[in-house]
Amino acid sequence: MWVVHSPDVAVRHAFSPSPHNLLSKITACYRSIRKDISPRCSGSMDRLTLSHCGRKQATVRTCTVSGFPTELLEMRSEESSLHVLLIPGNPGIVLYYKDFVEAIYQLLEGQASVTGKDYQLGHFKQLGIFVMQQSILEYLSCSKVDEYDFFTRIGSMEGCFHWKNKLIIRKISFMLPVCFFSLIQYVYSTFQVDFIEQEYQNSEHPLILVGHSIGSYICLDIFKRLQQQVKYVIGLYPFLSLNKNSLKQSMIGLISRSSIVSTTISYFVSFLGSLPTWVQVAMVRKCLGQSWSSTAVDATCSHLLQYHMMRNMLFMAMTEFEKLSEEPDWMFVKKKHNQISLLFGIDDHWGPLSLFEEVSRMVPGLALSIEREGHMHSFCCTEAGSLWAGHHVATLIKNQIAK
Questions:
Q1: Domain that holds residue 172
Q2: Does residue 107 form part of some domain?
Q3: Secondary structure of the chain in the HEC alphabet?
Q4: What is the mean pLDDT of residues 340-362?
Q5: Same structural domain, 104 and 189
Q6: Cα 71 to Cα 207: distance, rounded to the nearest angstrom
Q7: Domain boundary at 118, 148, 177, which?
Q8: Is beta strand 230-236 parallel, antiparallel or unpaired with respect to 367-371?
Q9: Are residues 96 and 196 located together in one domain of the fold?
Q10: Which pTM value belongs to this model?
Q11: Which residue positions does the secretion signal occupy (predicted)?
């Protein structure tokens, strides 16, 4: 151990030109990175056995919804009496919730089939967000016929991929101020409703929706449209309105509204994603936290570190910020207050305690909880957070089953 009396001494020791010292530091750095990417367990061996070897594993399936490939994380039960559908937060990567989904299934002891559904746009690697934008514009064309016809008369879109992209960008730039709500409603809620009607149309079992962050908002909107089919809605760390006191939200809003900044960030993220996998894993662990589970690290490296994924995430954040500047639909929440439960965090700028107080005031009698265990908004990125949230959700569901 060093005894340092001045900064100069520390610098001389740290940057000694000795080949032996340099080799030692390189070896130590390599061992540190190898340690970061090796399998780890935060707890005893018994807990590791319970978490990974002693429980049924979720499976990944891809299905087509409204013409778009959609990734599902599923745990099916032959003895289930209800369905649990998880709607994740932005960027909609359902693989982050693998530990969470497995915890819910295990704690419910097979009484429910649990499905996590993504809404990421990253599957469209060739066209990226432009494919979804085109579908959105077609969906909105009934109310925007004049603007749509004006741009299509400029030139033919057939056989010219680049012109088609420019055309869509120009239409989006002209229409964004007036179609934010329809955009978020289509990409989020309508897409989810189409999936529910496709997958559960012949099912007699009730449906319970679990939403995280903006997923809570999506679940409430789905509930409005499928009130007969949805039995209960659980919102975790809900993002229901903007937090004007949050500097982080202000910064994200500025970034997402700037095409130049968003593009620059997306290219940088894409560069990181082009690095060797072991380097990506080491960087994610170093930058985002040693407590992250291997599931979350793998999902980040395989899905998030891509140009189109980052652009899509920022684009959707922009639409969220615009829509959530409005007041939530308190009238609907009051009407269905006995079928809704919300969980808030102590230090969560997306769903702050000020929102908890507002909900308490606006909807007396609504089932509200505050998580005081120290888990973050991104609870699904740690095994401890996934297990705690899974226990919370399973308890609420069991209470509903008992009624």
A1: 129-177
A2: yes
A3: CCCCCCHHHHHHHHCCCCHHHHHHHHHHHHHHHHHHHCCCCCCCHHHHHHHHHCCCCCEEEEEEECCEEEEEEEECCCCCCEEEEEECCCCCCHHHHHHHHHHHHHHCCCCEEEEEECCCCCCCCCCCHHHHHHHHHHHHHHHCHHHHHHHHCCCCCCCCHHHHHHHHHHHHHHHHHHHHHHHHHHHHHHHHHHHHHHHCCCCCCCEEEEEECHHHHHHHHHHHHCCCCEEEEEEECCCCCCCCCCHHHHHHHHHHHCHHHHHHHHHHHHHHHCCCHHHHHHHHHHHHCCCCCHHHHHHHHHHHCCHHHHHHHHHHHHHHHHHCCCCCCHHHHHHCHHHEEEEEECCCCCCCHHHHHHHHHHCCCCEEEEECCCCCCCHHHCHHHHHHHHHHHHHHHHHHHHC
A4: 93
A5: yes
A6: 19
A7: 177
A8: unpaired
A9: yes
A10: 0.73
A11: none
Give the number of other Cβ atoms within 10 Å of residue 392's Cβ. Answer: 20
pLDDT in tens, 8-37: 433 333 333 444 443 344 344 434 433 443
Residues 61 and 102 in one domain: yes
Burial of 120 (0-12, 13-18, 19+ CB in 10 A): buried
Query: Which pLDDT band holds residue 85 (cuts at 50, 70, 90)?
Result: very high
Q: Do 98 and 187 belong together in one domain? A: yes
32: tokens are 């540190």
pLDDT band at 320, cuts 50/70/90?
Answer: confident
Same structural domain, 169 and 114: no
